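As the next step, I needed to go through one protein, both as residues and as discrete backbone shape codes, included below for the reader:
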Amino acid sequence: MNTIKQLLKPKVEMGFFAILVIFLLLLLLASQSTFAAEINVSVDRNPVSIDESFQIMFTATESPDDDPDFSPLEQDFSILNQSNSSSSSWINGKSTKTIQWTVNVVAKKTGRLVIPSVKFGNDISQSSAILVTNVTPNKAVKTNDDLFIEVEATPLNPYIQSQVFYTLRLYTKVNISQARLNEPELADAVIERLGEDSNYNTQVNGVNYSVTERKYVIFPQKSGRLIIKPLVLTAEVLTDGNPNFNSFFNSQMTKTKRVESKAITLDVKPAPASFNGKHWLSAEELVLKQEWSGDVQQMKVGEPLTRTLTLLAKGTTVGQLPELNTTNTNDRLKAYPDQPVLQEQKKADGLQAFKEEKIALIPSKAGSYTLPAIEIPWFNTKSQKMEVARIPETTITALAAAGTQSAPVAPEVTPATPEKIETGSVIKGPQQINIWLWVSVFLATGWLLTLIYFLTNRTVTKPIIENNGPEINLKECIKNLKIACNNDNALASKDALLEWGRQKFNVSNLGAIAMFCDARLRDEILHLNHVLYGKEAGQWQGKKLFQAFTENKAREKIAMTEDKSLEPLYRL
């Protein structure tokens, strides 16, 4: 029997070894697929015309398995040229790498075309889609025009404070230099530029042109008829030299050319009567959510729990986002809000605004607390309907801290009877108590006379008042701000605010200063920034700004007074 076991033992070990090898091979294959390079695909614009070239970008954050094979693209696209680039960065102690391949192509047919997956060795890119349209027939231009500007705006009849896309295209068939192009101008509007210029080639009436495209978003701030002024381009056009001169010294000459775009009229509609929200907010998309730093049903009395509210809106500015925190402070539940975080992202499909508010809640007594629902009414510019983003009311439960008990009841004290007094106890009679009373009165009187003597005979010295440089500078800044606001001088108000921000917060731009202020002053500073950007200094009124500034200063003093009376808190 033992001999049979000895003969079977090597086979069992060999079988286990084979299973182990197969398991390791499968693990290796799984790891290879897990760590395959992810390659994303994007285009510089969508849709495009059949006669326009466009760029397809393949982007990876790590080196793929091999060089790309772009031959699958040739089924629906003609490849004009290709290039690749790489960049590295070090952010917050973490290294990131980006590798990008750019392929310049022209579509062979119209319709919704699929950009096929491209192999990079064993790695493969994602597929994507692009819409290719027919040649746009509205480009009425003479074929002998060396350069011209085309502009368009969509939509032409937006609602107030809604996003309008404004696109300019510069068509050239000659070499130009020293080009100067003004920015779009529109009174009572916020104008933001989106991303970098894109360049491509196209045909107009059978003539080849190079096109430079630039995009903006415009947010009209009042209803009615608004006119976007024409754009003006002044450039030096390179021409052949005059053959009457020595071509060695004068091979090329330039001539100055000035071209102008058309003006565009917007018919801006007011907020619809069906919108019943307190504050008008229009966007293409809006998301409201909350997060907690712990379990809302397991709070501890005296310990903070942080509530984080975030609002993400697409197609609007950060200045239009409302306040999110509706928690009121009371004796049983204290709320300590942080400064809100505000961000704007400029993407190819428009502006995206982000707001985050953190509130530390500290219960002082055990029990349940109900936080009211948060509702943000907004107007969806895609569906043309009013919607409400909502966080339902939230109930939180605070538990008594571990080890705490109710206040102990004082035990009843039974007066001692003479029979229970032990022998040897010292009993003070009335005469002994009177003697010590007179001794105490005598010593207290002597101490009081000594104190009066020193107070009346000391040398009186005047306190030395030191000049506080930063405080004097702040007062001077506030004085200058008041004068500038009273005179409705936007530029002088900006300078005074910048100096005040440098002294108080060590920041040097209006946006950063606004982040340190309460909601009303922040909105007024951002409004001033928009007015200056839109070149509307003559129409700005400074009364609201200085009033908000004064109220913000008063709230700071109240907060300082309250902080002195509160128990110290650990910063979250």
Observations:
- The chain has four domains: 39-133, 147-268, 282-399, 471-565.
